[in-house]
Amino acid sequence: MAAKSSGKAPAAAAPASAGQAPAPAVPAGMTAPPGSWGYAPAPESAEIVSIASEYGLFIDGEFAPARDGKQLITLNPATEAPLAKVAVAGQADVDRAVAAARAAYEQTWGPMPGAERAKYLYRIARALQERAREFAVLESLDNGKPIRESRDTDIPLAAAHFFYYAGWADKLEYAGFGPGPRPRPLGVAGQVIPWNFPLLMAAWKLAPALAAGNTCVLKPAETTPLTALLLAEVCQQAGLPPGVVNVLTGAGETGAALVAHPGLDKVAFTGSTAVGKEISRAVAGSGKRLTLELGGKAANIVFDDAPVDQAVEGIVNGIFFNQGQVCCAGSRLLLQESAADAVLDRLRARLATLRLGDPLDKNTDIGAINSAEQLGRIRELSDSGDAQGAERWSPPCELPARGFWFPPTIFTGVSQSHRIAREEIFGPVLSVLTFRTPQEAVTKANNTPYGLSAGVWTEKGSRILWMSQRLRAGVVWANTFNRFDPASPFGGYGESGFGREGGRHGLAAYLDA
Amino acid sequence: MPDRKTADPADGRIAVRKTYKLFIGGAFPRSESGRSYPVRTPGGDLLAHAARASRKDARDAVVAARAASAKWTAATAYNRGQVLYRVAEMLEGRAAQFAAEVAAAEGASGKAAARAVAAAIDRWVWYAGWPDKVAQVAGSANPVAGPYFNFSVPEPTGVVAVLAPSGSSLLGLVSVLAPVIATGNTAVVVASEQRPLPAVTLTEVLATSDVPGGVVNLLTGLTAELAPVLAAHRDVDAIDLTGAAPADRAELERLAAGSVKRVLIADADWAAPPSPQRMLSFLETKTVWHPVGL
């Protein structure tokens, strides 16, 4: 694996094979022998985005500090350098935000014709497109994900989500929720989102809620508040009426205060299953509507007739996309026994070409882990893989000295009872199991309390459909993996949560139909 | 209750009374606990002793429902529709018996009871038409921005616990049970605690209507005793709290959170026309992607 030095990491992190290495093996002017060339650094400039030293809460259309003045520092996980101080919302701020959202719901947003709401959402979608690079750089700085992903996936999908739901705002009576009166919004929605796709998750929450006529109080994750705050600025500049969108930064306590607030009609949460259960208990008996998008432990199933090169790309995309910090990551690789060795050989060779390093470098494949806490969890679960007898492999890989990093890792010899086969690692760690028959593959794939996603790789169409019918998962990717689209419903079975985001189905979470 | 009334040997014949038992896995066991409880008319007359199901009976019912799930889910929608329609046919033939039982259980007039039974039969027929249509109503082909064929289909959630409404002993029960099984779920039903006898008789209809054993399991007993067991049970995928006492609902929701159950709280006017909402509450949406290419 080729490690690259990030802008602020010590140069010692760069291996001799990298393009910027100070002592080339071949004298200048001579042709380098095959295999010895490297990539020159290709960093995206961070200057496109100006980060303020401090950020307030976005309540009722204005930025303001927390009532009690509390702040937290958000870091660049690739360097551990502080990026900004952001306010920590307390109970008084939650009260204020919910009151502002209620007033906006009753006075402006609720009564507004859908066609007018739509135009605001179109404005937001367009603003995200216009400022896409700025958002992408900010996302990579705050989250640690490669610019290639924030630029090509997170930000375009966020804009597409607003564009898609904008069009629903004046067509709700055609959304297929049956006869009777026009579907009505629920009211004020409290939305708590995770750090793995900060802006995209904000878009997934806000766009359908606003299209349906609800107003929102959004709580971004503690470690990734910056793009949600920039989105708040976009809302302001779009002229969105005050109080329609409120953004409360903070940590778990802020989220807990929000979901418990009696002024909400709806709670939507994306995050871990453990926190989802806590929220579910907190909401019990309140009459609030609830949707949960929780963890996963997806099986990515490769049959022996699968096109190996495509499957290997799909496996890599399945578990190393966003450093594996994806709820629907293909974290369990199920290989048909007869093909296991061939696929693993090809997979190892492919991993050796992945480039880990500066998230802002356009050639980077693997960025930083989002936080020290998450890195600790990945390490702890990986160590359990060693302790329980699985065999660990990573490509040769030097990690930058500063920042939070974990090399792409494969465990073979994994049994279904191992913790690394059962628990969500949320990191670049793949557990490999094998199977002989399609039925065995289904049984193993479904042997989990989760049910968010699954992958199937085979050239046989009838087998794809047979497998798709039997896999207990909300999304089945056949001969592809980790594809997302605003028109495509996303969400889980079982302990992966309930409700769908995306598509016509995503409206149901925000309508009283 | 016909049994009781004709128990008076005025015509010289001693009536044969029925033992009201549980319905689990297609069989009619008594409670493993050996317990029963008296069921009375609203006026206080003893109707029968119904089985008082235990926690163990509830767990057995979940096992039976889970065992029946794969086959019922895999049955064609056309087949499930015919099975449900067959239930309506069987009910129609026993309409008079049900009317008498509903009248006794609910203290309703004969006319009102007959109307409720007719409505219950019609409701089965309404749901019998849904299995092969719900996927067309709730599913979709999704126009994603890329070379992929993408579609969404509804699938049954799995094992659904149903706390049947306490007041409407047959129409209410049918209104909460039929939408659960029409789409391929299997059910563990807790019958109305005060009015369980029409529910037990309904299971006799189900047992003779091509409904595979285990698809519907019925427990009679104390709702407050059985509901927490089902709400907390990790192999129950969803729970309908319609029949729970309002004061108990929050605690049942908390128990259900432990395994991320789908929870339905929806009171209804059982005489009003139904909507597909109850069916949709116990369906999952599955979305499948496949690349398009040469």
CATH level 3 topology of chain B: Aldehyde Dehydrogenase, Chain A, domain 1
Strand order of the largest sheet of chain B: 7-6-5-8-9
Q: Using only CA atoms, what is the Rg of chain B?
A: 20 Å
Helicity of chain B, in percent? 40-55%
Round the Cα radius of gyration of chain A to an integer and report it: 23 Å
> Which term fits the overall shape of chain B?
globular
Describe this structure in words.
The complex is a heterodimer of chains A (513) and B (294). Chain A has 513 residues and is of the alpha/beta class. Chain A has 2 domains: 47-294 and 495-512, Aldehyde Dehydrogenase, Chain A, domain 1 (3-Layer(aba) Sandwich); 299-485, Aldehyde Dehydrogenase, Chain A, domain 2 (3-Layer(aba) Sandwich). Chain A is 36% helix and 17% strand. A 7-stranded mixed sheet of chain A has the order 16-17-18-14-13-19-20, sandwiched between helices. A 6-stranded mixed sheet of chain A has the order 10-9-8-11-12-21, with helices on both faces. In chain A, helix 14 (461-470) links the parallel strand 19 (453-457) and strand 20. In chain A, helix 3 crosses helix 4. Chain A is globular. Chain B has 294 residues and is an alpha/beta fold. Chain B has one domain: Aldehyde Dehydrogenase, Chain A, domain 1. In chain B, 42% of the residues lie in helices and 17% in strands. In chain B, strand 5, helix 7 and strand 6 (186-190) form a beta-alpha-beta unit. The longest helix of chain B is centred in the N-terminal third of the chain and has 20 residues, at 55-74. Chain B is globular. Classes of the chains: A alpha/beta (513), B alpha/beta (294). Strand 20 of chain A pairs parallel with strand 10 (283-291) of chain B.
